[in-house]
Amino acid sequence: MQTIFVMVKCDLGRAYQVADQAVQSIEQVSEVHSTSGQYDLLMKCYLDDKTDIGHFVNESIHALPGVKDTFTLIAFKAFS
């Protein structure tokens, strides 16, 4: 299992719509948080080991209406 975080910049006024669509339509998205600063949303995604991250982001996240830009972080280990 791969964990990635995708920071999403949305078109003005579209952050809530993008967040709702991501949670409802993308099975791999486990959490969506609104953020302040350069990006509007932070999405936590769990992908199968065989999933190509670039294809997933391009075909799933970028395909959402209202997404303007993304920045993807790959997580290696979770600490508690």
Give a description of the structure.
It is a single chain. With 80 residues, this protein is α+β, with helices and mostly antiparallel strands. The chain has one domain: Lrp/AsnC effector binding domain/regulation of amino acid metabolism (RAM) domain (Alpha-Beta Plaits). Helix content is 25%, strand content 39%. The chain is built from two helices and four strands. The chain has helices spanning 15-25, 53-61, and strands spanning 2-10, 29-34, 41-47, 67-75. It has a four-stranded antiparallel sheet, with helices on one face. Strand 2 (29-34) and strand 3 (41-47) form a beta hairpin. 19% of the residues are buried. The mean pLDDT is 97.
Largest β-sheet summary? 4 strands, antiparallel
Helix content: 25-40%
Radius of gyration in whole Å, from Cα?
12 Å
Query: Averaging pLDDT over every residue, what do you get?
Result: 97
- Beta percentage is 35-45%
N-to-C SSE string, H for helix and E for strand = EHEEHE
Q: Which architecture does the CATH hierarchy give at level 2?
A: 2-Layer Sandwich
Total strands: 4
Short description:
Helices cover 25% and strands 39% of the residues. The chain has 80 residues and is an alpha+beta fold. The protein has a 4-stranded antiparallel beta sheet, with helices on one face.
